[in-house]
Design brief:
Radius of gyration: 17 Å
Oligomer: single chain
Strand order of the largest sheet: 1-2
Number of helices: 5
Number of strands: 4
Largest sheet: 2 strands, antiparallel
Helix content: 55-70%
């Protein structure tokens, strides 16, 4: 989905569609409300907004939300580093924007370089653990 979103957002203007970034505290666990975000995106499409602009606005909102989660978690724990992984990290635009926002808060940004971000990275880790147990 992250790669399809990236393709849909090419040449889109994220500033032309305003989508709310809602971070919720659920019993001490911060969560990005993506259901509301997608409902707003759907409404904007029905209202006549260009698909590329809505896709770009979704990327921007997801990036802001994820960066907010990372920054608040790091600062709350006194950590100076934020890592970014998972399938969404395949989206270059989201990754770039999360990096900008995290670094603007003085945190070091980490991302995968040698291992895949998503399921491939999990598989690699599982293979490493299995290999270590066999030795």
């Amino acid at each position: 989905p992250a790669i399809k979103l990236e393709a849909a957002a090419v040449d889109g203007d994220p500033e032309s569609v305003k989508l709310a970034v809602e971070v919720e505290d659920q019993g001490g666990l911060l969560r990005l409300n993506t259901a509301k975000l997608l409902a707003e995106a759907y409404y904007e499409l029905k209202r006549g907004a260009r698909r590329v602009d809505v896709a770009a606005a979704v990327e921007e909102a997801v990036a802001k939300g994820l960066a907010t989660l990372a920054i608040e978690a790091a600062q709350g724990r006194g950590v100076k580093v934020a890592g970014f992984t998972g399938g969404v990290a395949y989206n270059r635009r989201i990754t770039k924007r999360v990096r900008e926002l995290v670094e603007a808060e003085g945190l070091k940004f980490l991302r995968h370089v040698r291992a895949p971000c998503g399921d491939g990275g999990i598989s690699l880790g599982q293979a490493a653990i299995a290999g270590a147990k066999l030795l």
